[in-house]
Amino acid sequence: MDGGAFGAGKAGGAFDPQAFIRQPQTILRFVSWVFSIVVFGSIVNEGYVNRVDELEEHCIFNRNHNACNYGITVGVLAFLSCLLYLALDAYFPQISSVKDRKKAVLSDIGVSAFWAFLWFVGFCFLTNQWQASKPEDNPLNEGGDAARAAITFSFFSIFTWVGQAFLAYQRFQLGADSALFSQDYMDPSQDSSMPYAPYTNEEDATDAVGTYQQPPPADAFDTETQGYQTQNY
């Protein structure tokens, strides 16, 4: 368990709204959230027009409903993804598990890169269909500004989502370095796989330091002198 990995503080700390808002990934998510609203909002409100002699409305992008549906779908899902990861960013410092933080950062990298790709496809698709549109299909040029806004902010969204993927990758690199010690290090005294140290008694410890010989008892000297008798001359 490690509370200071992958670019966040230790788990259990108080939530700081000002620090959260100033984070680069928070700013990019908010900008991407606004861009997605502009894209799908422009298409929903003014992306369908009809001729004077028609009642049915058609997509402003070359009357291709797939183009409008794509822009709306990607915009709405990107809107929801931004809200989801904003909530995850707010909760991220409370995650104490290094593995769970790693999964969250990796999902951020994958999702951000995926949405950058979808916005790139959407920009190319909408631009192509807008260029292929016929003036007679929209003689009053209704919704032209909305169509151009959807194309423009689709283009901008590519870079905001690429930026989110890049920041997530930086957090992954930072987390991999900061979590290396906590994941790989193990106290030898806590390692159950290590064999127990052999038991050594006091005698062995004494022999290891040096051999100690006890001096002979005092009675030994008396025993040696008992056989000697003095002679009187």
TrEMBL record:
Parts of the chain that traverse the membrane: 30-49, 69-88, 109-130, 150-169
Lineage: Eukaryota, Metazoa, Chordata, Craniata, Vertebrata
UniProt record similarity statement: Belongs to the synaptogyrin family.
Organism per entry: Zosterops borbonicus
UniProt-recorded name of the protein: Synaptogyrin
Chain segments carrying region Disordered: 191-233
Major subcellular site: membrane
Membrane topology category: Multi-pass membrane protein
PROSITE patterns reported in the protein's UniProt record: MARVEL (PS51225)
Cell compartments where the protein resides: Membrane
Comp. bias (Polar residues): 223-233
Every MARVEL domain range: 20-173
Entry keywords, A to Z: Membrane, Transmembrane, Transmembrane helix
GO cellular component: neuromuscular junction; synaptic vesicle membrane
